[in-house]
Specification:
The chain has about 425 residues and is an alpha/beta fold. The protein has helices spanning about 5-25, 30-45, 45-60, 65-75, 75-90, 130-140, 155-170, 190-195, 210-220, 240-255, 275-285, 295-305, 315, 335-345, 355-365, and strands at about 105, 110-120, 120-125, 145-150, 180, 205, 230-235, 265-270, 290-295, 310, 325-330, 350-355, 370-375, 395, 405, 410-420. The relative contact order is 0.14.
Amino acid sequence: MSSVIKEMMQDIGMRARTASRAMARASSEQKNQALLHIAKVVRQKTDEIQRVNQVDVERAKANGQDAAFVDRLTMTPKTIETMALGLEQIVSLEDPIGKISALQKQASGIELGQMRVPLGVIGIIYESRPNVTIDAAALCLKSGNAVILRGGSEAIDSNTLLAQIIQDGLAAAGLPKDAVQVVTTTDRSAVGEMITMTQYIDVIVPRGGKSLIARLMAEARVPMIKHLDGICHTYIDADADVAMAVKVCDNAKTQRYAPCNAMETLLVNQEIANQVLPTLCKIYQDKGVELRVDGLTRKTLEANGFQNLVDAIEEDWQTEYLAPILSIKTVANMDEAMNHIEKYGSKHTDAIITNNKAQADRFLREVDSASVMVNASTRFADGFEYGLGAEIGISNDKLHARGPVGLDGLTSLKYVVMGHGEIRT
């Protein structure tokens, strides 16, 4: 690592740590004023954001990035408006900082409670999605944290512009610009420095592919809230409503292919396979989805005239495609479906389609994922859809946060003691 990069990162960390103290004492009014200013300017600069983003998109295409990557990188008027709406939704959320749980009087006379406080300085390392710059900064800002954002080199122009908009919003509200900083170098050694700066950064949130996560798990000294694969399953139970199953599973796969909450494996109970698979798989093939199937599924589909099926191999069950490819397996019962999810899932999001309450309850209790759903598309596993305003990531971990990480996930608790002159005897 060059001394220039090390000095730059140390300076960013030092300024973030200083800013974090100002953010911890910032009022809700100040934080909301900054967020509303950012939302207003994001809308005003929609055309400019798209123009700058197009530079990133063209560079990604020239570098041979695939369609899923380009989709995650591309900012449309809809995605830009969604960012603005997310900012406004965060404004509407109750500020958790400084809240003290009900004080309980102890035998000694002291009163004991817990106060919700910011984590401090959060480092976010992410790839391709420039909307993360806004979403993550907004959540960190509202929860009273300072944040250091290190986006991928492929989105450097988009991220730099969005950072300027955010810092203008902070300044307009009388908050330090250093509370949100974007690392402007594309040198990978900046990440290596960032993940070891324990004196400045309290937690790292990585959002990216397996190689990024593997590197951070091997090298990081700063604690992490990890966002791993989204190998999401939907299980169609024997007691499912067929029309509902078709509608939900179509949406779970094809509404968008690139997000981590898109369904990658469909599990179908053998008792209902012949009723649901032909209709559903025709929709998939009409939309250009490649179907990778096990033997029983192939038998069902070929009996109904289907062609162009691909035999699923072991690797397919453990692959997050982020593309118009779907693995399908016919199972004997829900136990086989849950065993498959336990073996191959990534503990992100899994769903069951059923009208059998006992089956639904079992699935909810036994499937060990951050989000478990009944009769709903896995695409709902999202901070915006969960009413969190946005998300800083979707954690597959159990500690410290799980699922879409919103405001509460970016805070901690400390004990507070209110005394009246008591002494310990």
